[in-house]
Amino acid sequence: MNKTEDEVVSLTAECLTRYWKRDYTFIFSHCAPKIVWISARQDEYLLTLDEVKENLKTNCAAIPSCHLQHAEFQVAASCSELYVITGKYLVTTDPEEKFFLSAQQRCTFVWEKNSSGLQIRSEERRVGKECQLRCR
């Protein structure tokens, strides 16, 4: 991988880590004005930056604090301006939460390198079939 590809992989991991710690401002700072955001829930097919911002604010206020385990991210494709990053990870609630949740997720981020720096043009997250939920 080249330097920019390394940076994009790191940014992808950081965006997901901060999302699960309920810090949506970091993600906002990397969103392109034109963005497509597809998340795990059926109603999360968002086509404007305002929709993405509202959705992230709402979700981050509602989700428990979690951390990533066994995270793997790689460059699936790249050219001089676009970078496609795919990944998989296990998201697990932090110990201080009242319940235990663990789910395998997969993601795809498309980053664009432009005069504003690296920006997210598209994001998609999917939940795998394995999911555990129990009270602590």
Please provide a brief summary of the model:
This protein is of the alpha+beta class and 136 residues long.
The assembly state of the depicted protein chains is single chain
Structural class: alpha+beta
Helix amount: 25-40%
Instruction: Report the total helices.
Output: 3
Strand order of the largest sheet: 2-1-6-5-4-3
Please provide the count of β strands: 6
Radius of gyration based on Cα positions: 15 Å
Shape: globular
Can you walk me through this structure?
The chain has 136 residues and is α+β, with helices and mostly antiparallel strands. It is built from three helices and six strands. It is 27% helix and 51% strand. A six-stranded mixed β-sheet has the order 2-1-6-5-4-3.
